[in-house]
Amino acid sequence: MKIFKYLTLIAVLLCTAGTIEARRAILVTHYGSSDDRTRALTIDHITADIAQSFPDYEVRQAYISPVVLRSMERKGLKMDSPLEAILKLRAEGYDSVYVQPTTLLDGAETSEVKRVCDSTAAFFKLLKCGEALCYSPDDCLQLTEILAQEPVEAGEAVVYAGHGNLLPSTATYSQLDYMLAATGHTAYHVSTIEGYPTASSTITRLKQSNPTVKHVKIIPLLLVCGNHTKVDIAGEFADTLKAAGYGTEVVFRGLAEVPAVRNLYVERVKALVE
What we know:
Oligomer: single chain
Helix content: 40-55%
């Protein structure tokens, strides 16, 4: 019923569009998190950084994951989906909207945001959707330069553990891993918990490229530090490395806690609104 309400308001606004002053908005779409602490440190911080950098725009955020949306609602916290947020903006008179996903890969969640943008573009004078963080080779190279800034000691390696998927976009993790090695950062690796590279294939790479490594620092390649880190990365993934003889340390830090990573999104929005 809410969607019909928004559509009715949009129809009225379209009829009177000539009398409404042009208004611009930025919508930041996150996968989402129901963990209050990591949300404040990561995705909320991305939105805040973008709002600070674009004071002349209305800046809002939305969550892509229906699971996270339902989880938050059970806690009494209401967050809009991308469709709800876009329709609200139009109902309130915004005619130019720039949508920036914070998804890491150009996968299913990014495609969903683009689908919503395509289906609502006719309601706006301008509706533009940005790309995922690791969309192009240059994007991946930028990220690896940030990943390689993590301190590493002698006899230690850093393994960034991403989520992974069963789609072609999971190859992005292999590209990041290859780029780290190709730029001379042989102490750094990228792996996944549900895609490729696997923990086992990363162990093979560790033995080949860093045979003297005895200790592995595992860092989530995830914007937030939620259940995937606490359960999957600190659990089965770390246990697999331990079984191979490595001492492990899991760093409980979301990728978006790193200012340089958040700045990549700010730069994305700058390119989007130009």
